[in-house]
Amino acid sequence: MRLWGRATALRRGMICLWLLLLGFALATLTLSDLFNRDRSLQKPGPPRRPLHQIPGPAELEVIVDSRDPALELGVDAAPLKSLQEDQLLFVPSTQGTKSPPQKKGNYKVLLPGVNKETTVSGPTAHGEMGKAVQLHLKGLEKDMELTAVQKYGFNEVVSERISLHRKLPETRHPECFGEQYSESLPSASVVICFHDEAWSTLLRTVHSVLDTAPGQHLREVLLVDDLSQYGHLKTVLSEYVSHLDGVRLIRSTRRLGIGGCRTLGAARAVGEVLVFMDSHCECQKGWLEPLLERVAQDRTRVVSPIMDVIDWKTFQYNATQWPVRGVFDWRLDFYWESNPQVQEKDPEVAVRPIRSPALGGGVVAIDRHFFQSVGAYDPGMLLWGAEQIELSIRVWSCGGSMEVVPCSRVAHLSRHHLPFRFPDQDLLQKNKIRVADIWMDAYRKIFYRRDTLAHFIRQSENPNIAERLRLKRNLGCRNFHWFLTTVYPELYIPQDRPALSGELYNVGTGRCADFHLGQGLQGAGMRVAPCSGTGSQHCDLNSEGEVRWGSRGALCLDTKGEMVVLSPCPLHRPTISRLQWKFIKLSGQLVHQQSQLCLEAVKEGGLLQSSPREIYSSTGGLFLRQCTHHPRQQWHFEQLVAPKSA
After folding, report:
1. Per-residue model confidence as pLDDT tens digits over 530-550
2. Are 91 and 63 in contact (CB under 8 A)?
3. 29 Cβ neighbours under 8 A, 6+ residues apart
4. Which residue segments constitute the domains of the chain, with CATH numbers given?
5. Given phi > 0 = left and psi -120 to 50 = alpha, else beta, which region is 510?
6. Other beta carbons within 10 Å of 525
7. Terminal-residue alpha carbon distance, the chain
8. What span, in angstroms and rounded, lies between the C-alpha atoms of 274 and 80?
9. CA separation (Å) from 176 to 27, 181, 275?
């Protein structure tokens, strides 16, 4: 009995001790919460992340019918009539208030697969339990990163850790610091369209503009919401924006796409110069003045900064090597082209703007009246894709010009993938079809041979382009031949001769000549791969004996020992003998003129030589061999789109 009594007393003592410890812990948490509240009241600031909905005043959002005569567009905005059917939500800025009130406190983490919520407010575990929690949280963090990449196309978890006001490293050329700009530069409206953008990247873009653009030149920042669905872009964003000087939020009640969204922002802008900017950019100090200076000197000039790159995974800033310009190929795909050798030959080019056949859509500055008079963005373009190429060809053809300004730099966030799926999977091709049929004249045949999906869509659908053709006539725009010879003479014009162009099909392997883009461009080995049938493997044997590869036709079949590789084609005639080939239609052999050897295809792990001593290749590819009648040396060109049908 005595032992039992002692055990009972010991248990009662342990229970009392645990209750005391629990009471102490609760008291500590309560005091910590009160302390945090006091600190939040003493140091107000903008919320870093929308953890919960913050109800805003009802008068911040006003429904405005754009058919109201007070909102009618001006006479010079005739191409914008399609926007008069929209209903818009405006969120005006609250002037004089630098930042919204901050609300802080503990937040809860719902662990996956667990029905209990865990309050996180600092180190809460020790020993083995602490290690287990740390490992679990690390696993949770990785899961969150994967989810963020799937949702946004970039690592939003990393982005959340970065300040909304981070400063980028200085990468401008030293000569840029000596540049003098006019004191009477035109005012700018920065138009930022967004659809389901992440909170951190959107707000970092806005603050980057506000932190780097001089107040005397920046008239306003227009945020245009293209029917976003995410909750943090609703009331929370409205509340946040209402406390930012010079920032307005416009909401569209229907999905417009990038072109329509930017045109909507332009119709409501008040600045003399429109600066269209993607919703995931960061600006270098001094980026705006050089753009405004170039537009002020010529109101028909459209300009872009050097677009640096923010890595989608790490958010590391990567400077683009100058000089660079925007170009496109015969599939109407845009890309930036770098040519550092130009600066080595001419040091003054370091600060001299370069004429560019096209500009990307990341950041574009254009005079507001010229933008409206030249037709804004084509309202027939769907959601996203090729709108920057359409605008580029139209600006050049209809009296304007385009250039990249080296003393202006803006970083653009790359994406691992688009964070949303298009409702129409053929959307991009339909946009390209509009560009080809409106602006490329007879040269559109070259495009259709390199994008067979667009060709077949065009065979079954006729785009409604009558209004844009009328605009083209009214503006007196030049034809595409003028564009190719005057603006973009470096773009090779394929000959596409029958039986000497198309997919290069190999009889022995049943595959087509192919090139892996990941290998780089210069000196990359050719291979054989399943025939795509899309036009992406198009090549052209021209009258000079060159086998031009790809949708731009800038790479030629070359040799590196016995291996057949790709190398840049010469810009001037005549071509070098090493790049010359002859096709013998009767035998299907493609003969290298200089060596008189034949092109032979080898699949991965296949036979490398057709001699008695068999050698097998681990990688496969195209090689030069003594000419025989082996099927692996028999080729024929398959033209997927007949010339007369394009």
Report:
1. 999 988 899 999 999 999 998
2. no
3. 119, 121
4. 501-645 (2.80.10.50)
5. left
6. 17
7. 104
8. 15
9. 60, 11, 21
